[in-house]
Amino acid sequence: MNKQKIFQFDINKCVGCQACIIACIIENQTEQPIHWRDVNTFNKNHHPDLPVFYHSLACNHCQDAPCLNNCPALAYSKDIISGAIVHNQNKCIGCQYCTWACPYDAPKFNIEKGVIEKCTFCLHRTEEGLKPACANLCPTGALDYIEKPEIVNNKNIFAFTDININPSINFIPLRNEKTVEIIPEFKHIEIKNSKSKIESKISAKKEWPLIVFTLLMAVLASYFTAFSFYKINFNPHIFLITITLASVFSIFHLGKKYRAYRAIFNIKKSWLSREILFFGMFFILSISQIIFKQNIYLQILAVISGILLLLSIDKVYSLAIQSTNLELHSAHVFLSGFLFLSIFIENYILLSLLIVLKSALYIYRKYYFWKKDKDFKIFQSAWRLDLLISFPLFFWIFDFSHLNLFIFISIFIGEIIDRIEYYNELDIITPEKQMTNYFTSKS
What we know:
Layout: E1 5-10, H1 19-28, E2 38-41, E3 54-57, H2 66-70, E4 76-78, E5 85-87, H3 97-101, E6 108-110, E7 115-117, H4 123-126, H5 133-136, E8 143-147, E9 169-172, H6 184-197, H7 208-230, H8 236-252, H9 271-292, H10 296-316, H11 333-344, H12 348-371, H13 378-397, H14 403-425, H15 431-442
Parallel strand pairs: 1-9
Antiparallel strand pairs: 1-8, 2-3, 4-5, 6-7
Helix pairs in contact: 6-15, 7-8, 7-10, 7-11, 7-14, 9-10, 11-12, 11-14, 12-13, 13-14
C-alpha cells in the first residue's frame, strides 16, 4: 500500500517568485482574480532593514479539516486514498462559512458563480503518479510533494497556525542564521501599514443581512415567549410579516439561494446547520400555534426552539476571533432576547438587571480596547450606552404614555449599534495576519 503524500515547504528556499501560483492557475484554469494558492510575506515593500520571508500556502487537506466539519451543506468530502479534501460546487450554497473556519484562507468565494472554489490537490495529476502542478514547477525546490514522514511537527513554524487539525504539509523550518530581529524603529511603521491593508472576512457591511436576521429573531423569540406564557397583547399579523421578512434575510447572503434547503444537512457538526434547523422549527411551530391556538405542546416546543435558535446564532461566531477574552458579549442575541422579553412582560426588575449586565460587558470591552490600544469610537459608544441606559431611564422617570414602546425603540436602536460593532470587531485568522502577528509578538 502506498503511503499518503503531502506538501513540503522549505521556508529557506522560497524567493516569492509566485511560479507556484501561475502553475496552479494554468493547470486548473481558475478565473482571475481568484487563485487557489497564495504567497504571503510580511515585508512586502522589501525594506532593507527588515526580514523578508515567504509562505506558499493553498489548501493543506487537513486530517481534521475545519471546512469539512463546519460546512452546513456537506459540500466537502475526503478522498480516502489521497486524503484530499474535495469540494463539490454542485452542493455548495455559497454561505462562505468555510472561509471563516479555515486558518489557511484556502476556500475562495467566486462571486460570479456564487460558490466556493479551492485547491483539489491536483488529484487528476497525482492519480497518474505526477506531482501537483504547483510543486512540479517550483524553480527553487521550496515547494515539493513527498511521502508523509513518520513525524510531522509544525508546531513551532513561524507564522503558521496548526490548531490540532493535522494539515497535510511538512515545513522545513528556518535555519538559525536566517532568523532576524526586527529593528524597533521600523516596527511601528511596517506593522501598522501591514495591518491597515488586511481586510477582515467579517464586517457589518458584508454581513448586514445577518445583522437584520439575528436581531429580528431575538425580538420574535422573546415576543412569542411573552405571548405564550404571559398572555400579552399579541398581533399575529405583525409576527407573521416579521418572521417571513427574517426568513428572506436569512438566505439573502447566500451565493446559491435556491440551495438553501441544504443548510441543515450537517446538524451533527455545524452550528450553522443547527441555527437553520432551529429557525425552521421555530418558524413552523410558532405559525402552527397561531393557526391552531391554545395548544400548549406547540407553545412549549416553539419557545424551546426559539431559545435554542438564539444560542445557536451566538455559537456560529465561535469560529471567529472574539474582541475580548470574555466568552460573553454584550451583543449576544441570547442576552438581547431576554432583554426584549423583560420589556414585553413589563418586568422592570429583570430589565434593570439585564441593562446593568449588558452595560458592564460593553464598558469592559471598551476599557479592554483602550488598554490594548485598539481603536474605538467614543461618541458612538456613548450613544449606545445612552440608548441602553439614559433614554429608558428618562422615559420611565417621566412616566411617558406608551412607556414600553419608547423603551423598546431606544433599546432596539442601541442593539443595532452594538450588533454592528460586534461584526466589525470579529476577525478571522489568515496566513497574512498570522505573519504580521508573529512579527508583532517578536518585536
